[in-house]
UniProtKB/TrEMBL annotation:
It comes from the Bacteria. It comes from Nonomuraea spiralis. Pfam families: MFS_1. The keyword Transport applies. The chain crosses the membrane at residues 29-55, 67-86, 92-113, 125-147, 153-171, 191-211, 217-234, 255-280, 286-309, 321-340, 346-364, 385-408, 414-436. Its main location: membrane. It is found in: Cell membrane. This is DHA2 family efflux MFS transporter permease subunit. Residues 1-441 form the Major facilitator superfamily (MFS) profile domain.
Amino acid sequence: MIAVILLGGLLGILNSTMAAVATGTLATAFGTSLSTVGWASTGFLLAVTATIPFTTWAVDRFGGKRLWLAGLVVFAAGSLTAGLAWNVGSLIAFRALQGVGAGILDPLVLILLARAAGPRHAGRVMGLMGVVLSLGPVLGPVAGGAVLNALSWRWMFLLSVPVGMLAYLLARRVVPDERPADHVRTRLDVLGLALLAPGFAALVLALSQSAEQGGQVALPLLVGAALIAGYAAHALRKRGAPPLIEPRLFANRGFVAGVAIMGLGGLANFATLFTLPLYYQQAHGHGVLTAGLLMAPVGLGGAIAMPLAGRLSDRFGARGLATAGAILAGLSALAFTRIGADTAEIWPVLAALAIGLSMGCFSAPTMGSLYRSLPGPLVAQGSSVLYMLNQLGAALGVVLVTLVLQIAGDPITGFHGIFWLTLAMIVIILAVVPLLPAREPALTGKASL
């Protein structure tokens, strides 16, 4: 079951990162500007963000298996139509349809795995999920470059169709059905959805566009903040049916600490993944594909460390592993601040491997601890919060990295500045780690894997 769920979860991550390397190719194919075709990626991101709150409600209303299968169908339909797009407008629309499918699948990966594993094996299963999260952003650009070198851009989307259908057929066989009693048939909080979904989407839009448009993002930023504030007020006074996201989740210290660590760790990881290809291209003159391959040690390190660290955290708790991982990550970021244009490539490769290993050491235990801190009925809400903040973190990371590169006098100075910023994030993580639960509660029962 785990492998089947991870296969579906990999679809959205790979497709979004593959498409990022095709912006220039798509602009040429449709005879339009880079900024216009960039909306194909932005529309995907906004659709993902806006769909996640709906998924939080729908998983309990319709059941995890049915919603998972529906998400695979929507994603495959979006992939097929995006591959057949006839102009840039149709491509943007069909990429948004893909984003709706990904907005269903992405949080469901965590929800289904967390429910199947139970608290006892949360670290182990989150570690396996971490393999997908680590390798997806690294493999996507490499796979996208390989497809563009050998085939038409349409195959970047069309190849997801048979994979999605395979994931669908396998899921029908191995994902267990849920009895009606297993999920609560609550009414949809329509007003909450109307405030939360566009609110987060507006914030993501403002952050993702700010690097290019500067002050022109003030309006969506203000609108997004106002909608989120309105949702918080609505949810706090809501009676009867529960809100989509319960604000009182944030009264749980362990949950807040876990979300903060994952958010800051995601920013640090994104900064590394965004910056390293630029370093290899600008300082060493490599092409896009070679630079992507040289970036692979970051994902490889995370893929190695996360399953091991997650399994160990089930036995020993999260604090020690998270502390050790954050210290190693800080030392790795510090090493990057000493790397220059004439540094032999073996050193940034080793530093990249070390930072991937270190981030894996604190990410999987933190995710496992986060799910242990939540009662079963709130797992879906916790997963949605984690994914929505991840989307905001990715958009904020673009802004911070771009800003540092813009104000730097030269590429190497900008490279160093980004890793000083990464080091600052890791120092904050170290300060937050003590807020994780010191000891895991005694748990009984077996995982239904």
